[in-house]
From TrEMBL:
Tree of life domain: Bacteria
Matching InterPro entries: Acyl_CoA_acyltransferase, BioF2-like_GNAT_dom
Entry's EC annotation: 2.3.1.-
SUPFAM superfamilies in the cross-refs: Acyl-CoA N-acyltransferases (Nat)
Source species: Ideonella paludis
Class of enzymatic activity (EC top level): transferase
Keywords linked to the UniProt accession: Acyltransferase, Transferase
Transmembrane regions: none
This protein's name: GNAT family N-acetyltransferase
Statement: the UniProt record of this protein carries the keyword Mitochondrion: no
Domain BioF2-like acetyltransferase: 170-293
Pfam families for the chain: Acetyltransf_6 (PF13480)
GO molecular function: acyltransferase activity
Length: 328
């Protein structure tokens, strides 16, 4: 125990708390629009929601986006990251006491463990990794670690192997037009990119996009200020594209894809370089996302090298399993 008596109250989320929840996320220091209920609930039918509001007296201290599967809780399988969302850093001792109280709360609800997906540090507006220390003290196990390839918010030092920028002559020779779609304003453009993305993922990785086109258009409409589509056109055809999720501190690549024609004229490279420059001009990190498979045990070295060729280096994203058995 911490030696500090702190009483916390854990209130299950209900739709009546939607406005309060979203307002808290908007002013949090480590939350992003992914924790807004409008984002969390686009696929609500897939999850048994078990989210919590954490109170101390009359003060709302934290949120925990979560769902339940049997005697196990997750924060959150439907999101890239999860864990406690804070309005401000609480301090190491208070966060430790909160985590211990959270263990007891879940144990009392018949929950044996919580999968806790940390919010990567680059998404924090203030340093607040107290939860990592609390997880350690509460005997959580590191069960997954992913390599995020990121570029800092200061102007890039481009690797010698890569020109900066790719020449406009290359773009002209390829007959390329680079365009940006904010939100869901151009559904036909989204549809063209999604068809290419789906075909590329199926052919190269035997996989499919996490979101359907309909889901992506819904989210892009709800969060037009945070979701954008960048495309490279060759004549009337979309040959490369990327979907960016923009937060206060990070420009994150959610999807990217390029056709055979795009690889001939480095169309995706040009889109990426343009996006990096614009992210840095806004003071944001540029996050390519992870290059891992099999729960982090396999590194796709070719994909990781491609990202690093733009000057990216590694920030890790950790997932912990927190035991919640009585007496934990």
């Amino acid at each position: 125990m911490t030696g500090r008596a702190v009483d916390f109250r854990f209130e299950p989320y209900t739709p009546a708390q939607r406005a309060r929840w979203n307002s808290f996320v908007a002013r949090s220091v480590n939350g992003t629009f992914l924790f807004d209920r409008g984002f969390m609930e686009y696929h609500a039918q897939r999850f048994d929601d078990a989210s919590l509001l954490v109170w101390r007296g009359e003060r709302l201290l934290a949120l925990l986006p979560a769902h339940r599967v049997g005697d196990h809780c997750l924060s959150h399988a439907g999101l890239s990251y999860g864990g406690l969302v804070l309005a401000q850093p609480l301090g190491a001792a208070t966060l430790l006491a909160l985590m211990q109280s959270l263990q007891r709360h879940w144990a009392g609800q018949g929950v044996r463990s919580l999968l806790y997906k940390t919010v990567p540090s680059i998404y924090h507006q203030l340093p607040c990794e107290d939860d990592r220390y609390a997880l350690f003290r509460c005997h959580a196990s590191l069960v997954r670690r992913e390599v995020l390839s990121v570029i800092g918010p200061s102007p890039a030092h481009w690797p010698k192997a890569r020109r900066k920028p790719l020449s406009g002559a290359l773009r002209q020779r390829g007959g390329l037009t680079l365009a940006q779609v904010q939100g869901a304003d151009q559904p036909a453009a989204w549809g063209a990119f999604w068809a290419m993305l789906t075909a590329e993922l199926a052919a190269r990785h035997q996989s499919a996009p996490v979101h359907s086109l309909e889901e992506m258009l819904l989210l892009a409409q709800r969060f037009a200020g945070h979701i954008q589509l960048r495309l490279a056109w060759q004549g009337e055809a979309v040959i490369a594209g990327m979907v960016l999720f923009e937060t206060a501190t990070v420009s994150h690549v959610q999807y990217m894809a390029a056709s055979v024609a795009a690889r001939r004229c480095a169309a995706l490279d040009q889109l990426i370089e343009q996006a990096i420059v614009q992210a840095q001009a806004a003071g944001r990190w540029f996050d390519f996302g992870h290059s891992n498979e099999a729960g982090g045990q396999v590194l796709n070295e070719g994909l990781c090298f491609y990202k690093e060729s733009f000057g990216a280096s590694t920030v890790v994203h950790d997932h912990y399993l927190l035991p919640c058995d009585p007496g934990a």
